[in-house]
Design goal:
By secondary structure, the chain is mainly α. The protein contains eleven helices and two strands; from the N terminus they run H-H-H-H-H-H-H-H-H-H-H-E-E. It has one domain: 3 helical TM bundles of succinate and fumarate reductases. The chain starts with a helix and ends in a 9-residue tail after the last strand.
């Protein structure tokens, strides 16, 4: 990091810290909750999942909303988070205090969540950038959101399905912990919790929320990988051959 950048970060430290904290809760945290809830519908009713996804994609000016309220906040949060991580030092191994271990895990899960986010976006939202199917165009050709997502997990993976699910499980757990543990830090930063008792209560509540989010995430993973349709096919892409989905081709059992 250059001297000029470091000086600018120091001058604007208070404002940047507050924006970093706020962006982690709203809109990024809110988006994570909605995203996991939407995916969890796949575990109970594929038609409900399809309906919810289609309603989201019918929102007016969705690309602009995604850019302003999701992608730009994520980019800022990640970039400034990297700057914080490069400057911060963990003393967890020295003191063995819970807060210090949470500090360390917050930084470790930040890196995992960032890598997972890039992987997730390239595999689904921006798959067409690397030769995969374009999401909305594929649905327009007759494939349901549930079937397309299931195809992406079971057959449209660059590695064996079980390894892909393992990577997603680790990324899911890291993302949920980073968000929920960040709730405690957010409440401290903004003066919402004062005193050890209040902080313990918020931490317990945030971990309970984390358990719910993990349940949603793992339920959707199970629904999208454990019961693949034997006749599921990706519609023909422009200038591409049809791709058939079969459990024998690396599907989950």
């Amino acid at each position: 990091m250059t001297t000029a950048v470091e000086a600018w970060l120091r001058r604007n430290h208070f404002l940047l810290r507050r924006l970093h904290s706020l962006s982690g809760m709203i809109p990024i945290g809110a988006f994570l909750v909605v995203h996991l809830y939407t995916n969890s519908l796949a575990a109970w009713d594929a038609h409900a999942f399809d309906k919810h996804v289609r309603e989201i994609h019918e929102i007016p000016y969705l690309p602009l909303i995604e850019l302003l309220l999701i992608f730009l906040p994520i980019a800022f949060h990640a970039a400034y988070g990297v700057a914080i991580a490069m400057q911060g030092r963990s003393n967890a191994a020295q003191y063995w205090w819970l807060d210090n271990w949470r500090y360390t895990l917050q930084r470790v899960t930040a890196w995992i969540a960032l890598l997972f986010l890039v992987l997730h976006l390239l595999h689904f939202r921006f798959a067409h950038w690397i030769g995969g199917p374009e999401y909305q165009a594929t649905i327009a050709r007759g494939m349901t959101p549930f079937d397309l997502t299931q195809w992406g997990f079971v057959d449209g993976t660059p590695v064996a399905a079980w390894l892909w699910v393992t990577l997603y499980s680790v990324g899911l757990a890291a993302s949920v912990f980073h968000f929920c543990n960040g709730i405690s830090t957010f409440c401290i930063t903004w003066g919402i919790t004062v005193g050890d008792r209040a902080r313990r209560r918020v931490f317990a509540a945030s971990m309970l929320l984390g358990a719910v989010l993990l349940a949603w995430g793992f339920a959707s993973l199970y629904a999208l990988t454990a019961r693949p349709k034997p006749d599921l096919r990706l519609p023909p892409q422009p200038d591409a051959r049809p791709v058939a989905l079969s459990p024998a081709d690396g599907g989950a059992s």
